[in-house]
Amino acid sequence: MADDPEINPEGPKSPNPDATEKHGKSAPTGWAARTLNALVNAYRPGHGEKDAKEWWKVCLETATILVVGIYTIIAGYQGCQMRKATVATQKSVDTDRIAMMLDQRPWVGVKHIAMKVFEAGKPMTVGATVTNTGKTPSLKCIVKANIQPNMGPLDVDIFSVSKERTISKQSPIVIFPNGEFEIPASTNIATEEDIREVRAGEMIIYYFGEITYSDIFGQSHETQFCGSYNPGKNSYDACLQHNRAN
User: Fold this and answer.
1) If pLDDT is split at 50, 70 and 90, which confidence band does 7 have?
2) pTM value?
């Protein structure tokens, strides 16, 4: 009769608690543990059909994770490139649209300013020709113009927004491409002294104002104009200020 196996009175030996501390790392758990166990069992002598199935299952899961990861990376890269292409396309469209609007918009300004009447006993009268040199009509066009005699130079930018200015303007109109019209303005009746002061350069006759209008694209614009009378040339010279357009 065979000898009975020796029974350890202390029970089965437990794993060495210092094993993990010796290596400095804890044993793998979860998916990593399943993968490791499947690999060990697959190459252990006498492994059975159950271990083989577990091995193929782990391989399939690993392959699936790799495929999903690669697909995610590729899809993310393609999405990033598509967003970049969309932004670039939108910028190009916006640039082309702005260029088209600038090319087709109306441009309203003053063609020339002329002294019409300059003699004692009559109002000094100035006329300005307003024209649209753009390719489309200017809508809701309003011209505000002033003739302003002044002893010496005048800061037109400051005066144009001061309470001293009396604004004269006409009702909104439409100016078609190459269309033009004249805006007259007059002073009080000029005296002999007024004429002398103007000819001597003591009094300067300014003609200035603003033109506001909109285009067919819904954008608003303003043109500022200013001229000072030159009695020696009997013409108006452009002022150094209040001549702007947008």
Assistant:
1) very low
2) 0.62
